[in-house]
Every structure is written in C-alpha cells, then in structure tokens.
C-alpha cells in the first residue's frame, strides 16, 4: 500500500533486480543503481512493488523519528500508524482502533 510519513525521511537505493515505484504521479521502474527519496510531510504516498519473477534487493535508510505518523494514501484504505508516544499502533484514519 502507498504510504507517507509526517516526520520520517526515507531514501531507497536498489542493489539488485528491479522494483516499480508507485506514487500519485504514476509508476516508474527502478533498477539496480537507481535511488529515490521521500521527504517527511509530503502526502504523496509511495510504494515499491516487485512485478518481476526474480528477487529484488534494496537498501532503505530512514531517520526513524519517534514522533512520526504514517498514513496509507490509497483510496479505500482506512489505515494509519500512530507515533510511539501515542502507543505505536495501527488504527483507522480517525484514530479509532480496529
């Protein structure tokens, strides 16, 4: 599922194989040597998908901010992850538990 973070920066570097990066702007194939960054607070959710028949290996680097909330941005997905200060749990977007 596409997701984005309020406080957490993400950077990915593809080491082997290929993945499809899916954002609001569409899809882009990333192959070995490609990289992408996702700044905190930008609500354009991202997702990596391996559509090939081979494994893909990528390195993901993040600042792992304890205040981070993650939102899942696909239509019909009523999901968010609250920061560790609020229990670090998955809830509906309005904060109610499943």
Task: Describe this entry's structure for a reader.
With 98 residues, the protein is an all-beta fold. The chain has one domain: Jelly Rolls. It contains no helices and ten strands. The protein has strands at residues 3-5, 10-16, 18-23, 26-31, 35-38, 47-49, 57-62, 70-72, 80-81, 90-91. A four-stranded antiparallel sheet has the order 1-8-9-10, with no helix packed on it. The protein has a three-stranded antiparallel sheet with strand order 5-2-7, with no helix packed on it. The two termini are 18 Å apart. The mean pLDDT is 93.
Descriptive keywords:
10 strands; 98 residues; mainly beta; 43% strand; single chain; Jelly Rolls
């Amino acid at each position: 599922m596409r997701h984005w973070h309020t406080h957490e920066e993400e950077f990915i570097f593809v080491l082997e194989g290929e993945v499809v990066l899916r954002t609001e702007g569409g899809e882009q194939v990333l192959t070995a040597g490609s990289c992408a960054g996702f700044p905190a607070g930008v609500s354009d959710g991202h997702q990596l998908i391996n559509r090939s028949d081979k494994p893909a290996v990528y390195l993901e680097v993040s600042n792992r901010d304890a205040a981070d909330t993650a939102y899942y941005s696909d239509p019909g997905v009523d999901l968010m992850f609250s920061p560790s200060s609020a229990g670090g749990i998955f809830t509906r977007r309005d904060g109610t538990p499943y």
